Amino acid sequence: MRIYDIIEKKKHGKVLSKEEIEFTIRAYLQGEIPDYQVSALLMAIWFNGMQPQETTDLTLSMAHSGDMVDLSAIEGMVVDKHSTGGVGDKTTFIVTPIAACLGVKIAKMSGRGLGHTGGTVDKMEAIPGLRTQLEPAEFFEIVNRVGACVIGQTGNLAPADKKIYALRDVTATVDSIPLIASSIMSKKLASGAGAIVLDVKVGSGAFMKDIERAEELARTMVEIGKLAGRKVVALITDMDQPLGQSVGNRNEMAEVIQTLRGQGPKDLTDLSIELASQMIVLGREMDLKQARKEALATIESGEAYAKFIEMIQAQGADISYLEDLDAFASADHQSELLAGEKGIITQIDAQEVGLSAAMLGAGRKEVTDTIDYTAGIKLHKKVGDQVLEGEVLAVLQSADADTLQAAKERLRAAYQFGDGAQPRPLIFKTIN
Ligand code: URA
Question: Is the pTM of this model over 0.90?
Answer without folding.
Answer: yes
